[in-house]
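User: Show me sequence and structure for the first protein, then do the same for the second.

Assistant: Starting with the first protein.
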Amino acid sequence: MTLNAKRALHIAEVLTEALPYIQSFVGKTIVIKYGGHAMEDRDLQSNFAKDVVLMKTVGMNPIIVHGGGPQIGALLKRLGKETRFIQGMRVTDQDTMDVVEMVLGGQVNPSIVHLINRHGGRAVGLTGKDGQFILAKKLPLHRLKPELKASEIIDLGHVGEVDSIDTTLLNTLIQNHFIPVVAPIGVDQAGTSYNINADWVASALAQVLKAEKLMLLTNTAGILDHSQKRISRLGKKQLTRLLKDGKTIGGGMIPKAECALSALRGGVHAVHILDGRHPHAILLEIFTHAGVGTLIQGE
């Protein structure tokens, strides 16, 4: 068998393996949180866009929610604006919020839309302020004060959480075969803008849209066990136990695991926490038996 014939056979085998997955997910909504290294490396950016276009082409309904923390931090630094974090969250005064909106809505979002469209998709960019489809409220942060044996509430400024979501706009875009690309900015009833964690926006969208899957791209191989090996599959109860033991899951993986549990409790069928540094991570996770991340499902 020639080299070309072997390559053709391999492609045929890959397509055959992918076929039952494609058939299962036709017409299903898949919410993808896009962030981390996958947003910073040019080759990975291109791979991501191709993956999303392919998903749409075979009949799935991908919705992208993106972050942009490093880009926000870089612009604030250029402007000479000090960045302060409390418990991993950026304190966001009005000037900082202006920068957040400028970067997420005016820089990062259009660049993702352009990339998807350049690879043959029909992407549309929006923030939660468009049509007021993401209503937000201020996020209260409680910090323990040992000397008082009580907690204090920290004002983070324009840092919010999802209050409610109106799916009318998104459903209109999906029904007309567009790929929505969402910047995680919400607005309250008074018109005040809030920066919201992109993982939690993705989780909330997946729940209200009754998504088949929520996919969270990270800079790690997924959830790791005590020996730092990837756990390929978890049930909801298992994940809850791992969170409670305080040893297996730590650092930045804790909020992602909590986000996954929230999505599952809200009716999302499966959550994938996967390594966005891996080329074509989304396709490998959805269309192959092995996958490249951690699949979490309810029992």
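Switching to the second protein now.
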Amino acid sequence: MVGYLYDELFTKHDTGAHIENKDRVISIDESLRGMGLFKLRPQKATIEELEEIHDPRYLEWVKDAYSKGYRHILNEDTVLSPDSYEVALYAAGSGKSAIDAVKAGMIKRAFLNIRPPGHHAERNTGQGFCIFNNIALAARYAQKSGFEKVLIIDFDVHHGNGTQDIFYDDDTVCFFSTHEKENYPYFTGAQEEIGVGKGKGYNINRPYGNYCEDEELLNLYEDLPTWFDPDILLISAGYDLMADESISTARISFDGLRSLVRKILDFASDRPAIFFLEGGYNIESLSKSVYITVEEMLEYGL
């Protein structure tokens, strides 16, 4: 079966008219109804778990930020509301639910319809709509659950600078990112950034130029690290690379996305694969894209 995680609590991170808003997860949930998915319940991340990926000083700052009058992290991109800290704890902990279900033999695939997103959150700060790094916490939890080697694939149109930052010196987590070169966060994501220390070679960036189309993107996935032989795959699923999105120049079609998801699932083979919602802001395109992703997971038959 395919697991699916969503809860109305994710709508309580109130960003108003910001493009990263509650309508994203609501529309996805509506599009997936009736697909026969295995429902997962969100879990809250603990402070101890968050301290494995974030600086304790940053965690303390976020906890008290709204009550002290702060309404953003770094700049207006990353909004804080009265419930943002609590919701972010659940977003960060949601990967635990999927991993627990995998360990129990209930599922092999899952889609987590969560917000705020996470892949821009670095060790010392949130940014780019992200408060905590959801997929990074899941990677550490997976390792504690027996999945020693974790492959993180990030196909969001923006580079997952936060995930790269957290695992840059780590040879147990391999990070593979495809992203638009001339886009946020602008100063990370070069192909030459391959990791440091024992993590050298375990950070793989494959940036592309403006107006990327299906064939160019899919060719980059020929570089997925077959040599790494992961125990589990975690995927930062950002749908802002789609042709109908206004936040990038990429022109990926729905057929191209379907082929991309198939490539990832083919690479996963019989290993677990968990998809985490990151970007995607055109509501109609986003809900259709996630539907295609989940449909492919169901078609794969694991």
